[in-house]
Specification:
- InterPro entries: DUF429 (IPR007362).
- This is DUF429 domain-containing protein.
- This protein has 255 residues and is an alpha/beta fold.
- It has a single domain, classed as Nucleotidyltransferase, domain 5 (2-Layer Sandwich).
- Strand 10 and strand 11 form a beta hairpin.
- Helix 8 packs parallel to helix 10.
- It starts with 7 loop residues before the first strand and ends with a strand.
Length: 255
């Protein structure tokens, strides 16, 4: 599950911050939740990290996304709606407030959508789903701007692309969620695949840490496998070679 001598981490955003399934060389995997991505980096200072979060932001958002999205969607069949386009960096930073009321949150969403409309071709606003992770995208973006060396060990991936790659190029047939509720059959399909890649079922069946959902946990577990593939040179970026944004941050989905 991990190359010799490599510390690895698979990371997904969660309600409490970030959930990481991580392991040191020769050790069993463990799971932790961190309130911030900085705290995660402090706890795992040497780890190669695969994270389910967009990395590298466009100045102008074009149809289909930044580039990686259009390449991976056709691989996923019915799961391709899980890959959504990222608006411009200006839209992501349009309102960075800490929201104290739901009204303020919706007002900030409208401001971000207005900026997104002005910085996309064809003009496109911001979905509620995308807006919900803006703060986490900014969190990683700010760190990669301030600390360029992190770009060599923090990589964007995507759970459904990961599951597809780990499944020999065949996408998962069942969704993890149906109408916002966890789908046990879809979770079992993914657990079976993760088990074929070295996970113990007892590990996958554990209750995730407080502040993280069961699907966040499985996604982070898949991300750990991609981190191992990256560290060993087996992973491939889409596109290959990666693009870069205006600040030199790589833009690619690894799996």
């Amino acid at each position: 599950m991990n190359p010799a001598g490599q510390a690895l981490a698979g990371v997904d955003g969660c309600k409490a911050g970030w959930i990481a399934v991580h392991r040191e060389a020769g050790a069993a995997p463990s799971v932790s939740v961190f309130a911030s991505f900085q705290a995660l980096l402090d706890a795992l200072p040497e780890a190669t990290i695969a994270v389910d979060m967009p990395i590298g932001l466009p100045d102008l958002s074009s149809k289909g996304g930044r580039g990686p999205e259009a390449l991976v969607r056709p691989l996923l069949g019915a799961r391709q709606s899980s890959v959504f386009a990222i608006p411009s960096r200006a839209a992501l930073y349009a309102d960075t407030s800490d929201f104290t009321t739901i009204e303020a949150w919706y007002a900030a969403h409208r401001r971000a959508s207005a900026v997104a409309l002005a910085t996309s071709d064809p003009p496109r606003g911001v979905s509620i789903q995308a807006f919900g992770i803006f703060a986490k995208i900014r969190e990683i973006d700010a760190l990669l701007i301030a600390r360029p060396e992190l770009r060599r060990r923090v990589f964007e991936s995507h759970p459904e692309v990961a599951f597809c790659r780990l499944n020999g190029g065949t996408a998962m047939t069942l969704p993890k969620k149906i109408k916002g509720a966890v789908n046990p059959a879809g979770m079992d399909e993914r657990k079976a695949l993760l088990g074929r890649h070295g996970y113990e079922r007892t590990f996958l069946d554990q209750v995730p840490p407080r502040g993280a959902a069961s699907d966040d946990f499985l996604d982070a577990a898949a991300m750990l496998l991609i981190a191992g593939r990256i560290a060993s040179g087996m992973a491939r970026p889409s596109p290959d070679p990666p693009l870069t944004d205006r600040l030199g941050i790589p833009v690619a989905i690894w799996a």
